[in-house]
Amino acid sequence: MDKLFTRPFVLASAAHFLHALSYYFLLALPGYLKQVGATEIGIGLLVGVASAAAIGIRPPLGRIMDTRGRRQVLLVGGGVATLCSAGYFLVTGFGPLVFALRVVHASAEAMLFAALFAFASDIVPESRRIEGIALFGVSGLIPMAIGAALSDVIIQRGGYGPVFLVATISALLGALATLPLVDAPRAPGEPPRGVWASVKQRDLLPLWACGLAFATSLAAPFAFMKTYASAHGNGDVAPYFSAYGVAAALVRVFFGRAPDRLGPKPVLFPSMLAYVAGLLALRLGDGPRVMEISGFLCGVGHGFVFPIILGMVVTRARERERGAALSVFTALFDLGNVIGGPLLGVVARGAGYGAMFVTAAALAAGGLLALVALDRPRALTAR
Questions:
Q1: For the chain, N or C: smaller number of CB within 10 Å?
Q2: Which sequence spans correspond to the domains of the chain?
Q3: 81 Cβ partners below 8 Å, 6+ apart?
Q4: pTM for the complete prediction?
Q5: 7-181+192-382 falls under which CATH superfamily?
């Protein structure tokens, strides 16, 4: 069996873990912004603006990764993410400083997200591609459980300052972990065509549609869970995100080979439905047990949906254009925030959080239907 756990894989996983830990600690940021004057619509607008900036960096980012390698992107992204995490200490109100920090920070996160998964895709064996990507992703899921639980405890005891400190230290350590990494040799062949060629590639279009719908729905829990929990209880998001992270990690560790053995779609379809059920479960109530059930179902779904779609993108993309294709794929999650942040914020403000979660579930289900309709030989040849 081809080996997965090589030294580069472990180092990249460590960097992913540390940068993800910084990210998940900062999921508490909306709660802090609400304290200094932000509304749900304002938070949604902030998410959308920051994500729009991250989308804008994708075209040059994809070309740089395909021509100069992943390491440069990792080093710059890690340094900028560290500085931005420290910058939240300066925020005392909801104004231009917050928007400037989030725009730059989101761009750095875009660089890290795309480059880490591109690097992992380069080094995992082709025969175990989805499994390898899924297991690599575990290093980004464990921090979800840790960050959500610890940030709530830290906020209750010491406020938001220590949360920003931990996020800063974690980002710095993540940047240091990327220093020993070396880019894989470039594949021979025609020069890369750039990001827009990947955007228009016919057999990738169904994956873009499904991925965008899934990414848009993610804005519901990731942008608004803190404010939802604050409005319906004590603001504790640990039951949801801990269950989410643990469930996603467990399915990848114990069932990670299923998509490579059974095929990606037979695993993708029930996984997306589990995620949809998890969002709908939040309509049943707002207690810790309901949040745990919802988080578990969403985690099981996310545990497979993300690596399966990403693995299909890697398989269908040209090898020398893998960086561009993964830049597009990761950009979907920023575009999802651009759409989902303001849209779901307006729904939450006007119709309540229950309607917001139903809307998010409908978006994810629509993405699955789009994949079924578009990803067929007849549909692809007709385009």
A1: N
A2: 7-181+192-382
A3: 19, 22, 105, 108, 109, 112, 171, 174, 175
A4: 0.76
A5: MFS general substrate transporter like domains (1.20.1250.20)
